[in-house]
Write a structure and sequence with these properties.
The chain contains nine helices and 33 strands. By secondary structure, the chain is mostly beta strands. 33% of the residues are buried.
Length: 489
């Protein structure tokens, strides 16, 4: 497997996405200095309409632009979701107020399309592409925000500069460059605010379909597939002994460097990216219920009214605890010796298991690219009866095979449990539609037997390469020969 989670690629861009009205935008993370809550803003007289004013950001004057007015949208009162994205423009910081910061995401440059000729609310000169997500249901417009912010004429910039310096703003010009700071990603667990150093956070994603893994610690939520890699998901609420919370629109997964492996950390809500002076960070209290090493420190902000518990990811969970649910070292970035990896390949089988009716099937995880909820399918005229149609997967057209029809089983309506498993076979991708996905399963190859000549469910045994017998033979999994199943293509 590729190690896309652990190694940055030149074919990817990392974006900070945000909303203005009904539109979603993305800016290159390298242009973003930080993300802050909306501070107290001092109005600037005679400034352009889109200039909200200025604020004091650690001893420096930060001009603030209202993103809605900037893009000719209706003005809106700021609320708890409003944020200021601080952009570096030619070495100078400028803040842009947005309705909500969505997430930090990685996108493949191949999935970025040219901007359309006509775009709502924003001058297309400032767009350098459009990303289509969720089968085209979610569009993210990529802003060349530096170009947009630099578009003011020299006279406008001069006027704004005079207005800012002429205003009676209380600014204390200390030598802020010499102040040591920590840059953190803060998030909520219950009512407590936690944070992890931004250098440990590789990306922030919405919660995809999580596949359960049996016989592991309660705090292991399961695994997800990201860019051909399996990522273990740790539920921090469960890990810290908190009450379980169902996944909702605010739930996010932080993809975190845990030391010698990568894991996803499930949190209630991501708040912001912020810089904190080291001077306001205190050692963790001795009475803390968490392991002292796990809690790196406590940042006291707003004169102690806001306290952030800073976690040290490498001290949370060891690689040994997580290795039991994974496959190869490439899957999770867990360091193992060569002998251990070789033994694992020889002695064990790893499958993604799923159901058609009450029968459980499995396909080798090496052939599974990802697992998605059922998406919109476009029918193909005069196609074989078992071809459901074609689906759009991030701009790629993929045929979808309905296993029920392929095995000549009775039709069944699509439900919330229906899934489409994307199979990658020799670089060719095909979706197979199944009733439900069970889990990612590992077991010894000694538990696999050759299929009988005749299967009780009427399925041609040529499509089955083995039968896994688990729980003393009480649970049977038909392991599909996916190459034969997909031989139609």
């Amino acid at each position: 497997m590729a190690t896309g989670i652990n190694n940055a690629s030149f074919t990817e861009r990392q974006l900070v996405t945000f909303q203005l009205g009904e539109d979603e935008f993305g800016v290159d993370i390298m242009d973003v200095k930080e993300i802050i809550r909306v501070p107290d803003i001092t109005k600037v007289p005679n400034a352009p309409l889109y200039v909200e004013g200025a604020c004091n950001l650690r001893g420096n004057v930060l001009p603030i632009i209202d993103g809605r007015t900037w893009f000719n949208m209706e003005r809106k009162d700021k609320d708890e979701n409003s944020r200021v994205i601080v952009i570096d423009v030619d070495g100078k910081a400028t803040g842009v107020i947005v309705d909500r910061v969505s997430e930090v995401m990685r996108v493949n440059t191949a999935d970025i399309e040219e901007p359309p000729q006509i775009v709502r609310n924003v001058d297309s000169d400032y767009l350098n592409g459009v990303v289509k997500l969720e089968s085209g249901n979610r569009l993210v417009m990529l802003l060349d925000v530096v170009k947009a912010l630099s578009s003011n004429t020299e006279e406008e910039r001069k006027d704004e500069g005079e207005s800012l310096t002429g205003n009676n703003v209380m600014i204390h010009n200390h030598e802020t460059e010499s102040i040591k700071e920590e840059q953190l990603v803060s998030f909520l667990l219950d009512s407590e605010e936690y944070a992890i150093g931004i250098m440990k956070v590789k990306e922030i994603i919405r919660t995809p379909q999580i596949v359960k893994v049996p016989n592991c610690e309660a705090y292991i939520e399961g695994v997800v597939s990201i860019r051909n890699n399996l990522l273990p998901i740790i539920n921090l609420r469960t890990y810290f002994g908190m009450e379980r919370l169902e996944v909702n629109d605010y739930t996010r997964i932080l993809v975190v460097d845990m030391g010698n492996f990568t894991a996803g950390i499930l949190v209630d809500k991501v708040l912001e990216v912020l810089r904190v002076p080291i001077s306001v960070i205190q050692p963790p209290p001795r009475f803390s219920t968490q392991n002292g090493e796990q809690l790196k420190g406590v940042a006291k902000l707003n004169n102690g009214k806001r306290m952030i518990l800073m976690l040290e990811p490498s001290k949370l969970i060891s690689a040994d605890e997580i290795s039991g649910i994974g496959g190869t070292d490439e899957t999770y970035g867990v360091e193992r010796d060569e002998k251990g990896i070789a033994t694992q390949f020889i002695d064990e089988e790893q499958l993604v298991t799923f159901k058609i009716d009450s029968v459980e099937y499995g396909v080798k995880i090496a052939n599974v690219q990802e697992i998605n909820r059922m998406t919109e399918v476009t029918k193909i005229p005069r196609a074989p009866h078992f071809i459901e149609g074609i689906v759009n997967l991030r701009g790629n057209v993929i045929p979808a095979l309905n296993l029920r029809n392929f095995f000549n089983l009775p039709d069944k309506s699509i439900t919330d449990a229906t899934r489409i498993i994307i199979i990658d076979l020799d670089g060719k991708r095909t979706g197979i539609v199944v009733d439900s996905v069970s889990e990612v399963l590992r077991f010894e190859k000694t538990l696999i037997e050759a299929p009988p000549e005749t299967l009780s469910n009427g399925i041609d045994s040529d499509y089955v390469e083995g039968v896994g017998k688990l729980d003393g033979g009480k649970r049977m999994i038909l392991i599909l020969d996916i190459r034969k199943v997909l031989s139609f293509s």
